[in-house]
Write a structure and sequence with these properties.
It is an enzyme of class 3 (hydrolase). This is non-reducing end alpha-L-arabinofuranosidase. Homohexamer; trimer of dimers. The chain has 2 domains: 121 residues, Immunoglobulin-like; 362 residues, Glycosidases (TIM Barrel), CATH 3.20.20. 23% of the residues lie in helices and 29% in strands. The chain contains 9 helices and 26 strands. The protein has a 10-stranded mixed β-sheet, covered by helices on one side. Strands 2-5-8-9-10-11-12-13 form an 8-stranded parallel barrel, surrounded by 4 helices. The mean pLDDT is 97. The site of alpha-L-arabinofuranose has 10 residues, from loops.
Amino acid sequence: MSNQITINADIAKGTINRNIYGHFSEHLGRCIYEGFWVGEDSVIPNTKGIRNDVVEALKKLNIPVLRWPGGCFADEYHWKDGIGPSEERKRMINTHWGGVVENNHFGTHEFLLLCEQLGCEPYISGNVGSGTVQEMSEWVEYMTFDGVSPMAELREKNGREKPWKLKYFGVGNENWGCGGNMRPEYYADLYRRYQTYVRNYGDNEIYRIACGPNVDDYKWMEVLMREAANKMDGISLHYYTVPKEWQDKGAATGFPEDEWAITLRKALWMEELITKHSAIMDQYDPEKRVGLIVDEWGTWFNTEPGTNPGFLYQQNSIRDALVAGLTLHIFHDHCDRVQMANIAQIVNVLQSVILTEGEKMLLTPTYHIFDMFKVHQDAELLDTHTTSARYEHGDEKLPQISVSASKAADGKIHISLCNLDHSAEADVSIALRGLGQGQKTIKGTVLAGAAIDSHNTFEQPNAVEPAAFTSFTWDGEKVSAKLPAMSVTVLELIEQ
Ligand code: AHR
Protein backbone atom coordinates (compact mmCIF):
# COMPACT_ATOMS: atom_id res chain seq x y z
CA MET A 1 0.00 0.00 0.00
CA SER A 2 1.29 3.47 -0.81
CA ASN A 3 1.08 6.51 1.44
CA GLN A 4 -1.62 9.04 0.60
CA ILE A 5 -1.32 12.65 1.79
CA THR A 6 -3.61 15.59 1.21
CA ILE A 7 -2.44 19.08 2.10
CA ASN A 8 -4.89 21.97 2.15
CA ALA A 9 -2.59 24.90 1.52
CA ASP A 10 -5.40 27.39 2.18
CA ILE A 11 -6.24 26.08 5.67
CA ALA A 12 -3.88 27.16 8.44
CA LYS A 13 -4.06 25.35 11.77
CA GLY A 14 -1.91 27.69 13.87
CA THR A 15 1.59 29.12 14.06
CA ILE A 16 4.56 26.85 14.72
CA ASN A 17 6.30 28.76 17.50
CA ARG A 18 9.97 29.12 16.58
CA ASN A 19 10.83 28.28 20.18
CA ILE A 20 9.90 24.66 19.46
CA TYR A 21 13.35 24.63 17.83
CA GLY A 22 15.04 25.53 21.13
CA HIS A 23 18.07 23.90 22.75
CA PHE A 24 19.37 23.08 26.22
CA SER A 25 22.89 23.46 27.66
CA GLU A 26 23.85 22.23 31.11
CA HIS A 27 27.03 22.21 33.16
CA LEU A 28 27.32 18.53 32.36
CA GLY A 29 30.27 16.65 30.87
CA ARG A 30 31.74 18.57 27.93
CA CYS A 31 28.69 20.64 27.04
CA ILE A 32 29.68 23.99 28.56
CA TYR A 33 33.40 23.37 29.11
CA GLU A 34 35.04 22.46 25.80
CA GLY A 35 31.69 22.47 23.93
CA PHE A 36 31.37 26.25 24.25
CA TRP A 37 33.82 27.60 26.77
CA VAL A 38 37.53 27.21 26.07
CA GLY A 39 38.78 30.42 27.70
CA GLU A 40 40.51 33.36 26.07
CA ASP A 41 43.97 31.77 26.25
CA SER A 42 42.94 28.63 24.38
CA VAL A 43 44.58 27.61 21.09
CA ILE A 44 41.04 26.95 19.87
CA PRO A 45 39.93 30.14 18.10
CA ASN A 46 37.46 31.91 20.35
CA THR A 47 35.76 35.22 21.01
CA LYS A 48 35.98 36.22 24.65
CA GLY A 49 36.50 32.56 25.60
CA ILE A 50 33.63 31.07 23.54
CA ARG A 51 34.76 28.88 20.67
CA ASN A 52 34.09 30.32 17.22
CA ASP A 53 33.57 27.10 15.23
CA VAL A 54 30.66 25.92 17.40
CA VAL A 55 29.00 29.34 17.43
CA GLU A 56 29.34 29.69 13.64
CA ALA A 57 27.78 26.27 13.03
CA LEU A 58 24.93 26.93 15.47
CA LYS A 59 24.15 30.35 14.01
CA LYS A 60 23.14 28.59 10.80
CA LEU A 61 20.31 26.84 12.70
CA ASN A 62 18.60 30.10 13.73
CA ILE A 63 18.46 28.89 17.30
CA PRO A 64 15.57 30.74 18.93
CA VAL A 65 16.22 30.01 22.60
CA LEU A 66 18.84 28.32 24.79
CA ARG A 67 18.16 26.91 28.27
CA TRP A 68 20.86 27.02 31.00
CA PRO A 69 22.44 26.14 33.53
CA GLY A 70 20.52 22.85 33.98
CA GLY A 71 18.95 20.39 34.39
CA CYS A 72 19.74 18.90 37.73
CA PHE A 73 22.69 21.28 37.97
CA ALA A 74 20.29 24.24 38.18
CA ASP A 75 19.01 23.30 41.63
CA GLU A 76 22.55 23.16 42.98
CA TYR A 77 23.79 26.27 41.23
CA HIS A 78 24.42 29.45 43.17
CA TRP A 79 24.73 32.20 40.62
CA LYS A 80 26.88 34.50 42.74
CA ASP A 81 29.66 31.87 42.53
CA GLY A 82 29.81 32.53 38.79
CA ILE A 83 30.33 36.30 38.62
CA GLY A 84 33.34 38.60 39.18
CA PRO A 85 37.01 37.98 38.27
CA SER A 86 37.20 34.36 37.10
CA GLU A 87 40.32 33.49 39.13
CA GLU A 88 38.45 34.47 42.31
CA ARG A 89 35.35 32.42 41.57
CA LYS A 90 34.44 29.61 43.92
CA ARG A 91 35.16 26.05 42.89
CA MET A 92 32.54 23.40 43.62
CA ILE A 93 31.89 19.72 42.99
CA ASN A 94 29.44 18.91 40.25
CA THR A 95 27.90 16.10 42.28
CA HIS A 96 25.28 15.15 39.70
CA TRP A 97 27.55 14.88 36.74
CA GLY A 98 30.78 12.96 37.21
CA GLY A 99 31.87 14.54 40.52
CA VAL A 100 34.23 16.86 38.66
CA VAL A 101 35.37 20.29 39.85
CA GLU A 102 33.27 23.15 38.51
CA ASN A 103 35.42 26.28 38.47
CA ASN A 104 32.52 28.61 37.66
CA HIS A 105 34.46 30.27 34.84
CA PHE A 106 31.29 30.12 32.77
CA GLY A 107 28.60 32.09 34.62
CA THR A 108 25.82 34.56 34.00
CA HIS A 109 27.86 37.07 31.95
CA GLU A 110 29.37 34.33 29.79
CA PHE A 111 26.02 32.66 29.16
CA LEU A 112 24.34 35.90 28.17
CA LEU A 113 27.30 36.70 25.92
CA LEU A 114 26.89 33.29 24.29
CA CYS A 115 23.22 34.04 23.64
CA GLU A 116 24.23 37.38 22.09
CA GLN A 117 26.73 35.60 19.84
CA LEU A 118 24.09 33.03 18.80
CA GLY A 119 21.39 35.68 18.41
CA CYS A 120 18.99 33.69 20.61
CA GLU A 121 16.85 34.31 23.68
CA PRO A 122 18.22 33.11 27.02
CA TYR A 123 16.08 30.79 29.13
CA ILE A 124 17.43 30.58 32.67
CA SER A 125 16.47 27.91 35.22
CA GLY A 126 16.49 29.13 38.81
CA ASN A 127 17.35 27.15 41.92
CA VAL A 128 14.38 26.09 44.07
CA GLY A 129 15.85 22.81 45.39
CA SER A 130 18.78 24.28 47.35
CA GLY A 131 18.49 28.03 46.80
CA THR A 132 16.59 30.75 48.58
CA VAL A 133 13.83 33.03 47.40
CA GLN A 134 16.19 35.96 47.94
CA GLU A 135 18.87 34.37 45.78
CA MET A 136 16.46 33.82 42.91
CA SER A 137 14.99 37.28 43.26
CA GLU A 138 18.43 38.92 43.28
CA TRP A 139 19.50 37.00 40.17
CA VAL A 140 16.61 38.48 38.22
CA GLU A 141 17.40 41.93 39.66
CA TYR A 142 21.08 41.50 38.70
CA MET A 143 20.24 40.65 35.12
CA THR A 144 17.34 42.97 34.40
CA PHE A 145 17.14 45.98 36.77
CA ASP A 146 17.90 49.30 35.11
CA GLY A 147 18.50 51.83 37.88
CA VAL A 148 20.12 52.17 41.26
CA SER A 149 20.00 48.97 43.29
CA PRO A 150 22.49 46.70 45.04
CA MET A 151 22.37 44.07 42.29
CA ALA A 152 22.52 46.61 39.45
CA GLU A 153 25.62 48.10 41.11
CA LEU A 154 27.20 44.69 41.47
CA ARG A 155 26.54 44.02 37.79
CA GLU A 156 28.15 47.30 36.84
CA LYS A 157 31.15 46.52 39.05
CA ASN A 158 31.49 43.30 37.05
CA GLY A 159 31.66 45.19 33.78
CA ARG A 160 28.07 45.36 32.56
CA GLU A 161 26.32 48.63 33.06
CA LYS A 162 23.14 48.08 31.07
CA PRO A 163 20.80 45.26 32.06
CA TRP A 164 20.14 42.36 29.72
CA LYS A 165 16.72 41.48 28.37
CA LEU A 166 15.54 38.22 29.88
CA LYS A 167 12.21 36.71 29.02
CA TYR A 168 12.21 33.01 29.93
CA PHE A 169 12.76 31.99 33.54
CA GLY A 170 12.18 28.50 34.97
CA VAL A 171 11.30 28.25 38.65
CA GLY A 172 13.20 25.04 39.44
CA ASN A 173 13.92 21.89 37.44
CA GLU A 174 12.61 18.37 38.03
CA ASN A 175 11.57 19.27 41.56
CA TRP A 176 9.84 15.88 41.69
CA GLY A 177 13.35 14.32 41.48
CA CYS A 178 16.86 15.80 41.45
CA GLY A 179 15.41 19.25 42.22
CA GLY A 180 14.32 18.33 45.76
CA ASN A 181 12.19 15.15 45.60
CA MET A 182 9.06 17.16 46.32
CA ARG A 183 5.39 16.20 46.23
CA PRO A 184 3.34 18.20 43.71
CA GLU A 185 1.32 19.91 46.47
CA TYR A 186 4.49 21.10 48.20
CA TYR A 187 6.17 22.26 44.99
CA ALA A 188 2.97 24.05 43.87
CA ASP A 189 3.11 26.15 47.03
CA LEU A 190 6.82 26.79 46.64
CA TYR A 191 6.27 27.74 43.01
CA ARG A 192 3.63 30.28 44.02
CA ARG A 193 6.03 31.76 46.57
CA TYR A 194 9.24 31.84 44.52
CA GLN A 195 7.62 33.23 41.39
CA THR A 196 6.23 36.16 43.39
CA TYR A 197 9.76 37.53 43.68
CA VAL A 198 10.70 36.92 40.06
CA ARG A 199 9.99 40.57 39.27
CA ASN A 200 9.30 42.39 36.04
CA TYR A 201 11.64 45.39 36.12
CA GLY A 202 10.91 48.28 33.75
CA ASP A 203 9.69 46.90 30.46
CA ASN A 204 11.35 43.51 30.98
CA GLU A 205 8.49 41.04 31.19
CA ILE A 206 9.29 37.58 32.40
CA TYR A 207 7.57 34.47 31.09
CA ARG A 208 7.50 32.25 34.20
CA ILE A 209 7.83 28.51 33.68
CA ALA A 210 6.79 26.11 36.43
CA CYS A 211 8.38 22.71 36.82
CA GLY A 212 5.98 20.28 35.21
CA PRO A 213 5.69 16.51 35.14
CA ASN A 214 8.04 13.70 34.43
CA VAL A 215 6.76 11.74 31.43
CA ASP A 216 3.24 10.44 32.25
CA ASP A 217 2.87 11.80 35.78
CA TYR A 218 -0.59 13.20 35.13
CA LYS A 219 -1.20 13.81 38.82
CA TRP A 220 1.69 16.32 38.91
CA MET A 221 0.18 18.20 35.99
CA GLU A 222 -3.28 18.15 37.59
CA VAL A 223 -2.05 19.53 40.93
CA LEU A 224 0.13 22.23 39.39
CA MET A 225 -2.59 23.44 37.07
CA ARG A 226 -5.19 23.37 39.82
CA GLU A 227 -3.05 25.23 42.35
CA ALA A 228 -0.96 27.60 40.27
CA ALA A 229 -2.11 27.91 36.63
CA ASN A 230 -2.97 31.58 37.11
CA LYS A 231 0.58 32.31 38.26
CA MET A 232 2.48 30.74 35.39
CA ASP A 233 3.00 31.36 31.69
CA GLY A 234 4.33 27.92 30.94
CA ILE A 235 4.78 24.51 32.51
CA SER A 236 7.49 22.06 31.56
CA LEU A 237 7.36 18.42 30.47
CA HIS A 238 10.36 16.08 30.32
CA TYR A 239 10.43 12.92 28.26
CA TYR A 240 13.46 11.04 26.93
CA THR A 241 13.45 8.25 24.35
CA VAL A 242 15.27 5.30 25.95
CA PRO A 243 15.22 2.15 23.78
CA LYS A 244 15.56 -0.37 26.64
CA GLU A 245 15.73 0.09 30.44
CA TRP A 246 17.39 2.89 32.44
CA GLN A 247 20.02 0.42 33.73
CA ASP A 248 20.95 -0.66 30.19
CA LYS A 249 19.49 1.81 27.76
CA GLY A 250 20.91 0.38 24.55
CA ALA A 251 23.84 1.58 22.47
CA ALA A 252 23.90 4.70 20.32
CA THR A 253 25.52 2.78 17.44
CA GLY A 254 26.04 -0.91 16.70
CA PHE A 255 22.59 -1.73 18.09
CA PRO A 256 20.48 -4.70 16.89
CA GLU A 257 17.86 -4.16 14.19
CA ASP A 258 14.86 -4.51 16.51
CA GLU A 259 16.06 -1.52 18.57
CA TRP A 260 15.50 0.68 15.52
CA ALA A 261 11.71 0.19 15.54
CA ILE A 262 11.49 0.08 19.35
CA THR A 263 13.22 3.47 19.55
CA LEU A 264 10.91 5.07 17.01
CA ARG A 265 7.84 3.63 18.75
CA LYS A 266 9.03 5.11 22.02
CA ALA A 267 9.68 8.47 20.37
CA LEU A 268 6.11 8.44 19.01
CA TRP A 269 4.81 8.13 22.58
CA MET A 270 5.38 11.89 22.82
CA GLU A 271 2.09 12.27 20.91
CA GLU A 272 0.08 10.55 23.65
CA LEU A 273 1.93 12.37 26.43
CA ILE A 274 1.23 15.79 24.96
CA THR A 275 -2.39 14.91 24.16
CA LYS A 276 -3.12 13.74 27.71
CA HIS A 277 -1.23 16.53 29.47
CA SER A 278 -2.94 19.07 27.20
CA ALA A 279 -6.35 17.63 28.09
CA ILE A 280 -5.61 18.29 31.78
CA MET A 281 -4.34 21.77 30.99
CA ASP A 282 -7.50 22.45 28.98
CA GLN A 283 -9.64 21.92 32.08
CA TYR A 284 -7.89 24.74 33.95
CA ASP A 285 -6.84 26.85 30.99
CA PRO A 286 -9.35 26.46 28.17
CA GLU A 287 -8.01 29.62 26.52
CA LYS A 288 -4.64 27.87 26.13
CA ARG A 289 -2.77 30.80 27.66
CA VAL A 290 -0.30 28.57 29.51
CA GLY A 291 2.31 27.01 27.24
CA LEU A 292 3.46 23.41 27.47
CA ILE A 293 7.25 23.73 27.46
CA VAL A 294 8.93 20.44 26.55
CA ASP A 295 12.26 21.69 27.83
CA GLU A 296 14.01 18.31 27.86
CA TRP A 297 13.52 15.72 25.13
CA GLY A 298 15.61 13.47 22.91
CA THR A 299 17.37 10.12 22.88
CA TRP A 300 19.23 8.78 25.90
CA PHE A 301 21.55 5.83 25.21
CA ASN A 302 24.38 4.11 27.06
CA THR A 303 27.40 6.40 27.22
CA GLU A 304 30.21 5.73 24.75
CA PRO A 305 32.60 3.03 26.02
CA GLY A 306 35.65 4.52 27.71
CA THR A 307 34.01 7.85 28.53
CA ASN A 308 33.04 9.14 31.99
CA PRO A 309 29.54 7.66 32.63
CA GLY A 310 28.58 10.91 34.36
CA PHE A 311 29.22 12.91 31.17
CA LEU A 312 26.37 11.38 29.13
CA TYR A 313 28.37 11.49 25.90
CA GLN A 314 26.74 9.49 23.09
CA GLN A 315 27.10 9.19 19.32
CA ASN A 316 24.29 10.34 17.10
CA SER A 317 23.06 8.42 14.06
CA ILE A 318 20.41 8.46 11.36
CA ARG A 319 18.12 6.91 14.03
CA ASP A 320 18.47 10.12 16.07
CA ALA A 321 17.61 12.09 12.93
CA LEU A 322 14.35 10.13 12.63
CA VAL A 323 13.57 10.68 16.34
CA ALA A 324 14.15 14.40 15.86
CA GLY A 325 11.99 14.60 12.73
CA LEU A 326 9.10 12.63 14.26
CA THR A 327 9.19 14.57 17.51
CA LEU A 328 9.28 17.97 15.81
CA HIS A 329 6.26 16.90 13.73
CA ILE A 330 4.40 16.03 16.95
CA PHE A 331 5.23 19.48 18.37
CA HIS A 332 3.93 21.09 15.16
CA ASP A 333 0.67 19.17 15.47
CA HIS A 334 0.26 20.54 19.00
CA CYS A 335 1.35 24.08 18.25
CA ASP A 336 -1.80 25.38 19.96
CA ARG A 337 -0.31 24.26 23.29
CA VAL A 338 3.41 23.58 22.81
CA GLN A 339 5.05 26.99 22.93
CA MET A 340 8.65 25.86 23.38
CA ALA A 341 10.78 22.72 23.32
CA ASN A 342 14.49 22.26 24.07
CA ILE A 343 16.32 19.22 22.81
CA ALA A 344 18.82 17.78 25.30
CA GLN A 345 21.56 18.78 24.91
CA ILE A 346 23.18 21.05 22.37
CA VAL A 347 26.86 19.93 22.39
CA ASN A 348 28.51 16.68 23.55
CA VAL A 349 25.66 15.51 25.82
CA LEU A 350 22.79 13.12 24.90
CA GLN A 351 21.15 13.94 21.54
CA SER A 352 23.55 16.67 20.48
CA VAL A 353 23.63 18.63 17.28
CA ILE A 354 27.41 19.07 17.61
CA LEU A 355 30.19 16.84 18.94
CA THR A 356 33.69 18.07 19.70
CA GLU A 357 37.01 16.40 20.44
CA GLY A 358 39.53 19.04 21.47
CA GLU A 359 39.72 21.43 18.54
CA LYS A 360 37.80 19.10 16.21
CA MET A 361 34.08 19.51 15.68
CA LEU A 362 31.43 17.60 13.74
CA LEU A 363 27.78 18.10 12.86
CA THR A 364 25.49 15.20 13.76
CA PRO A 365 22.51 13.89 11.77
CA THR A 366 20.31 15.68 14.33
CA TYR A 367 22.02 18.96 13.40
CA HIS A 368 21.00 18.41 9.80
CA ILE A 369 17.36 17.89 10.79
CA PHE A 370 17.32 21.18 12.70
CA ASP A 371 18.91 22.83 9.68
CA MET A 372 16.47 21.32 7.15
CA PHE A 373 13.44 21.99 9.41
CA LYS A 374 14.28 25.60 10.34
CA VAL A 375 11.98 26.67 7.49
CA HIS A 376 9.06 25.64 9.72
CA GLN A 377 9.99 28.20 12.42
CA ASP A 378 7.14 30.71 12.85
CA ALA A 379 5.38 29.30 9.75
CA GLU A 380 1.67 28.49 9.59
CA LEU A 381 0.92 24.80 10.06
CA LEU A 382 -1.13 23.55 7.10
CA ASP A 383 -4.09 21.21 7.34
CA THR A 384 -2.69 17.80 6.39
CA HIS A 385 -4.37 14.39 6.15
CA THR A 386 -2.17 11.32 5.98
CA THR A 387 -3.07 7.69 5.33
CA SER A 388 0.16 5.89 6.06
CA ALA A 389 1.22 2.42 5.04
CA ARG A 390 2.29 0.15 7.91
CA TYR A 391 5.86 -0.51 8.86
CA GLU A 392 6.07 -3.80 10.74
CA HIS A 393 9.17 -5.28 12.24
CA GLY A 394 9.08 -8.12 14.78
CA ASP A 395 6.36 -7.16 17.27
CA GLU A 396 6.47 -3.51 16.31
CA LYS A 397 3.73 -2.01 14.17
CA LEU A 398 4.30 1.62 13.22
CA PRO A 399 3.14 4.00 10.53
CA GLN A 400 5.63 4.00 7.68
CA ILE A 401 5.66 7.77 7.32
CA SER A 402 5.20 10.98 9.28
CA VAL A 403 4.40 14.27 7.56
CA SER A 404 4.13 17.96 8.40
CA ALA A 405 3.52 20.93 6.12
CA SER A 406 3.74 24.66 6.73
CA LYS A 407 3.54 27.95 4.88
CA ALA A 408 6.15 30.61 5.62
CA ALA A 409 5.55 34.36 5.67
CA ASP A 410 7.11 34.64 2.19
CA GLY A 411 4.51 32.19 0.81
CA LYS A 412 6.86 29.21 0.44
CA ILE A 413 5.37 25.86 1.41
CA HIS A 414 7.53 23.23 3.09
CA ILE A 415 6.62 19.58 3.49
CA SER A 416 8.77 17.42 5.73
CA LEU A 417 8.48 13.65 5.45
CA CYS A 418 10.02 10.89 7.58
CA ASN A 419 10.27 7.33 6.32
CA LEU A 420 10.51 5.25 9.50
CA ASP A 421 11.04 1.99 7.64
CA HIS A 422 14.61 0.76 8.03
CA SER A 423 14.50 -1.50 4.97
CA ALA A 424 11.98 -0.26 2.41
CA GLU A 425 11.41 2.84 0.32
CA ALA A 426 8.12 4.64 0.91
CA ASP A 427 5.93 5.46 -2.08
CA VAL A 428 4.18 8.72 -1.34
CA SER A 429 1.46 10.57 -3.17
CA ILE A 430 0.78 14.17 -2.06
CA ALA A 431 -2.29 16.01 -3.32
CA LEU A 432 -1.82 19.75 -2.86
CA ARG A 433 -5.09 21.69 -2.71
CA GLY A 434 -5.78 25.40 -2.33
CA LEU A 435 -2.57 26.57 -3.95
CA GLY A 436 -4.08 29.28 -6.10
CA GLN A 437 -2.99 30.30 -9.56
CA GLY A 438 0.55 30.55 -10.83
CA GLN A 439 3.36 28.21 -11.75
CA LYS A 440 5.00 26.37 -8.84
CA THR A 441 8.28 24.53 -8.70
CA ILE A 442 9.49 22.06 -6.12
CA LYS A 443 12.95 21.24 -4.90
CA GLY A 444 13.89 18.72 -2.26
CA THR A 445 16.58 17.83 0.27
CA VAL A 446 17.03 14.42 1.87
CA LEU A 447 19.00 13.00 4.79
CA ALA A 448 19.30 9.22 4.57
CA GLY A 449 21.42 6.50 6.13
CA ALA A 450 23.13 3.55 4.48
CA ALA A 451 22.88 1.52 7.71
CA ILE A 452 20.61 1.76 10.76
CA ASP A 453 23.42 3.43 12.71
CA SER A 454 25.05 5.57 10.01
CA HIS A 455 26.78 8.41 11.77
CA ASN A 456 29.53 10.98 11.46
CA THR A 457 32.93 10.54 13.07
CA PHE A 458 35.90 12.88 13.39
CA GLU A 459 37.59 10.77 10.70
CA GLN A 460 34.51 10.83 8.44
CA PRO A 461 32.52 13.90 9.45
CA ASN A 462 30.35 13.94 6.32
CA ALA A 463 29.20 10.32 6.19
CA VAL A 464 25.61 11.45 6.87
CA GLU A 465 24.77 14.75 5.27
CA PRO A 466 21.87 16.24 3.32
CA ALA A 467 21.72 15.73 -0.45
CA ALA A 468 19.46 16.99 -3.21
CA PHE A 469 16.26 14.92 -3.46
CA THR A 470 15.13 14.23 -7.01
CA SER A 471 13.08 11.00 -6.79
CA PHE A 472 9.75 12.73 -7.39
CA THR A 473 7.42 13.97 -10.10
CA TRP A 474 5.15 17.01 -9.88
CA ASP A 475 2.23 17.73 -12.19
CA GLY A 476 1.14 21.01 -10.64
CA GLU A 477 -1.39 19.33 -8.33
CA LYS A 478 0.22 16.14 -7.12
CA VAL A 479 3.67 15.06 -6.01
CA SER A 480 4.62 11.39 -6.39
CA ALA A 481 7.78 10.56 -4.49
CA LYS A 482 9.90 7.61 -3.43
CA LEU A 483 11.44 8.26 -0.01
CA PRO A 484 14.56 6.20 0.70
CA ALA A 485 14.48 3.83 3.68
CA MET A 486 15.43 5.52 6.98
CA SER A 487 15.23 9.04 5.65
CA VAL A 488 13.96 12.52 6.30
CA THR A 489 13.05 14.69 3.31
CA VAL A 490 11.99 18.32 3.02
CA LEU A 491 10.22 19.56 -0.11
CA GLU A 492 10.03 23.27 -0.85
CA LEU A 493 7.30 24.59 -3.10
CA ILE A 494 7.99 27.99 -4.61
CA GLU A 495 5.74 30.25 -6.64
CA GLN A 496 7.61 31.36 -9.76
O1 AHR B 1 19.64 16.20 30.55
C1 AHR B 1 20.19 15.44 31.56
C2 AHR B 1 19.35 15.44 32.83
O2 AHR B 1 18.13 14.83 32.58
C3 AHR B 1 18.96 16.80 33.37
O3 AHR B 1 19.95 17.37 34.14
C4 AHR B 1 17.77 16.50 34.19
O4 AHR B 1 16.88 17.58 34.27
C5 AHR B 1 17.16 15.29 33.50
O5 AHR B 1 16.87 14.28 34.38
